[in-house]
Design brief:
By secondary structure, the chain is an alpha+beta fold. It folds into two domains: 101 residues, no CATH class; 78 residues, no CATH class. It is 43% helix and 13% strand. The protein is built from nine helices and five strands. The strands form two sheets. The protein has a three-stranded antiparallel β-sheet, with helices on one face. A hairpin with a 3-residue loop joins strand 4 and strand 5. Helix 5 packs across helix 7. The longest helix has 20 residues. It is globular and about 60 Å long.
Length: 224
């Protein structure tokens, strides 16, 4: 939010809700939990230090993101540097892709970035259409910016069923991913920058190598 405001002051954000004061007993328990968390953080200090020392891929970004003309580029940058924000936009895009018109294929929930993330996890979703506009701006801008075919590597995770379905596609056939995908300029970068996944579901690290029309943006990334 700070970067968006800095580069485009016309973007407005709602005022954050004021937190309610907890009862004294609950407050004491929260303090105890805080102390326990602090001890655990101290014990895992080495691991956290390693995470904090991770290379900043976008530190040399000198692109101009100011003004309305650069708004799609500004959103794309924030979605790339802050993947949580990017996931919210992509989720909104997928919702409309599967629920266009009167034929709802998959009833996915709508989202609201300004709600407490814990509410999203508890299924308390609200109707919020603003992110559809962000998805449309970024999608159209990338579509217009795509240049000649470029060698690109896309990397991430696939579940068992997704991986099997991908293997069944004949070599040379087109694969359509919803919205846009962010790739890398080398195989080494693609492998190096697959994040560690600590989820419960079994997943496989996958790198997809192809030649397709791409737009180069956000310092070191390729987008299709």
């Amino acid at each position: 939010m700070a970067f968006l405001k800095e580069k485009n002051p016309d973007i407005e954000f709602p005022e954050p809700a004021k937190a309610e004061e907890a009862p004294a007993m609950e407050g004491d328990m929260m303090a105890m939990e805080g102390e326990m968390m602090a001890e655990e953080m101290m014990e895992g200090g080495d691991e956290m230090e390693m995470m904090m020392e991770k290379e900043d891929l976008y530190k040399d970004d000198s692109e101009d993101y100011t003004g309305f003309a650069n708004l799609p580029k500004l959103f794309l940058r924030c979605m790339t540097v802050h993947p949580y924000f990017g996931d919210l936009i992509k989720k909104c895009l997928i919702y409309y892709e599967f629920n266009f018109g009167d034929k709802a294929l998959v009833p996915l929930p709508k989202i609201d970035l300004f709600k407490d993330p814990r509410e999203l996890m508890n299924g308390k979703h609200t109707e919020d259409k603003e992110w559809a506009g962000v998805a449309a701006l970024v999608g159209c801008a990338l579509d217009a910016a795509e240049a000649a075919d470029t060698e690109v590597w896309f990397s991430g995770y696939l579940g068992d069923e997704d991986l099997e379905q991908l293997k069944e596609i004949a070599e040379g056939e087109n694969v359509l991913f919803p919205g846009w995908v962010a790739g890398w300029k080398t195989k080494e970068e693609a492998i190096k920058n697959i994040w560690e996944n600590n989820g419960k579901n079994k997943v496989h690290k996958v790198v997809i190598h192809t030649n397709t029309k791409c737009a180069s943006a956000v310092v070191c990334r390729l987008f299709a």
